[in-house]
Design brief:
The complex is a heterodimer. By secondary structure, chain A is of the alpha+beta class. Chain A contains two helices and five strands, in the order ββαβαββ. Chain A has a five-stranded mixed beta sheet with strand order 2-1-5-3-4. In chain A, a hairpin with a 5-residue loop joins strand 1 and strand 2. The longest helix of chain A has 7 residues. Chain A is globular, with a radius of gyration of 12 Å. By secondary structure, chain B is α/β, with parallel strands linked by helices. Chain B folds into two domains: 207 residues, FAD/NAD(P)-binding domain; 121 residues, FAD/NAD(P)-binding domain, CATH 3.50.50.60. Chain B is 22% helix and 30% strand. In chain B, the strands form six sheets. In chain B, strands 1, 2, 5, 6, 7, 8 and 21 form a seven-stranded mixed beta sheet that branches. In chain B, strand 6 and strand 7 form a beta hairpin. Classes of the chains: A alpha+beta, B alpha/beta.
């Protein structure tokens, strides 16, 4: 288990235990955290699981695969700390990760 | 009014195979889809990506799968209504009347919703003031390119649509192309062409910029764009185009009184009927305990939903289970000559 904190757009903070090996997207879906749609189900095909990663965590994350940046072009208000949460696999290194969920996904 | 046994909403792989299953048991159907072609997510999201988990097909692309499904349902002459989105639903005695966005009407015994994650709609700009110009001076698709002749146009996006339109319109208009990063997802040849046009002064390319505001009263006068590092630039612009791909929206189906849970429709697993008699849901849009969002699950759901429709379409007949290998009736429906 790793603790992941999701800050939702309504200024609420949700800290949940997410099983290692799941993605940050799945952690949000399983815990009913609002604001992550994940329409394509984790296939890096839709950009509706877009999150902003807290700056200090950015270089601890797995690097973007081909295609993630292309999908982020489609995301709602992408920034330099944008990631697709379906591509972030939870591990010991990510224990304590904090992400902000955008006001909407599209 | 189009009268048929079953209306299938959604022409993705699940909807297409369901049409086959209806055809085999002797029911007629027509298919509505909001996109301009059949294939759904397979065509819109990953036409070239290989799929490896279709039973007995070790590898195929979304496009190949779609083409094979279309070939498989050819004997049934299924009528497609593309570029149409279902809007209204009315119960009329024991039949359903459905009306689409384009005014096409259907009189059917049952409805099968195979709508994926909803209908595809263009993604829009994040800023509110864009709405008042939408359809007149701000567009997410181009229907009539002649209106842009000799005008100043700002195009946003980095995919093929943005690049292709920037290149084409730069012949007759003053084009600004604005994209959030230096890299593009569109074809490399188009990226090179855009850079070349920028160097020749035939197009203005702004990278690492995003939209900040749009100003104008009735029409657009100028827009402001904001750099990654914060500086804001004002550029003259009469038209604004945004190409950010498509997003899926459930749309009017939400108002039909179906039990909806997290953008999916609850069904039973006996015949994939919803809480409303005569309305079925299959594929990614349906939910039940253990649901897997796989194409193969959609095929199974479609086979059962098709049989579930039978009692509504032919209330006085009994459906007999048959195999296509031995059923004369099924083979006749498939047009097989022996």
């Amino acid at each position: 288990m790793a603790k992941i904190t999701y800050h939702t757009h309504d200024n609420k903070t949700h800290t949940v235990d997410v099983q290692k090996g799941l993605t940050v997207m799945e952690g949000a879906i399983q815990n009913d955290i609002p604001g992550i749609d994940a329409d394509c189900g984790g296939g890096m095909s839709c950009a509706t699981c877009h999150v902003y990663v807290k700056e200090e965590w950015l270089d601890k994350l797995p690097t973007k695969e081909d295609g993630e940046e292309d999908m982020l072009d489609m995301a709602f208000e992408p920034k330099s700390n944008s990631r697709l949460s379906c591509q972030l696999i939870v591990s010991d290194e990510l224990d304590g990760l904090e992400v902000n969920i955008p006001s909407k996904q599209g | 009014m189009n009268k048929t046994d079953v209306l299938i909403i959604g022409a993705g792989p699940t909807g297409l195979f369901c049409a086959h299953q209806l055809g085999i048991i002797g029911l007629s159907c027509e298919i509505v889809d909001n996109l301009d072609k059949a294939g759904g997510q397979c065509i819109e999201l990953y036409p070239d990506k290989p799929i490896y988990d279709i039973p007995a097909i070790p590898e195929c692309t979304g496009e190949e799968l779609t083409n094979n499904l279309l070939k498989q349902i050819k004997p049934f002459n299924v009528k497609f209504h593309l570029n149409e989105r279902v809007e209204e639903l009315k119960k009329n005695q024991n039949r359903w009347h459905v009306k689409t966005s384009g005014g096409v009407e259907f009189d059917v015994a049952a409805i099968i919703i195979a709508g994926g994650v909803g209908s595809f709609e263009p993604r829009k700009f994040p800023i509110k003031e864009c709405e008042k110009f939408e359809g007149n001076y701000l567009f997410y698709s181009i229907k009539d390119k002649s209106i842009f002749k000799d005008k100043t146009i700002s195009i946003f996006g980095g995919g093929d649509s943005a690049l292709d339109w920037a290149i084409e319109l730069s012949n007759t208009s003053k084009v600004n192309l604005i994209h959030r990063r230096d890299g593009f997802s569109g074809a490399e040849a188009s990226v090179q062409r855009v850079k070349q046009l920028n160097d020749q002064g035939k197009l203005n390319l702004f990278t690492k910029y995003q939209i900040h505001s749009v100003s104008g009263d009735k029409n657009i006068n100028s827009i402001k764009i904001k750099h990654d590092e914060g500086q804001i630039k004002e550029i003259e612009s009469e038209y604004v185009l945004g190409f950010f791909g498509l997003i899926m929206q459930l749309g009017p189906i939400l108002d039909w009184g179906l039990n909806i849970n997290k953008k999916t429709i609850e069904v039973n697993t006996e015949n994939f009927e919803t809480n409303i008699d005569g309305i079925f849901a299959i594929g990614d849009i349906c939910s039940y305990p253990g649901k897997l969002k796989l194409i193969l699950s959609g095929f199974h759901e479609g086979a059962l939903a098709a049989r579930g429709c039978f009692k509504y379409a032919k209330p006085d007949e009994k459906l007999r289970f048959e195999f296509t290998t031995t059923s004369k009736a099924a083979q006749q429906r498939l047009g097989i000559k022996k």
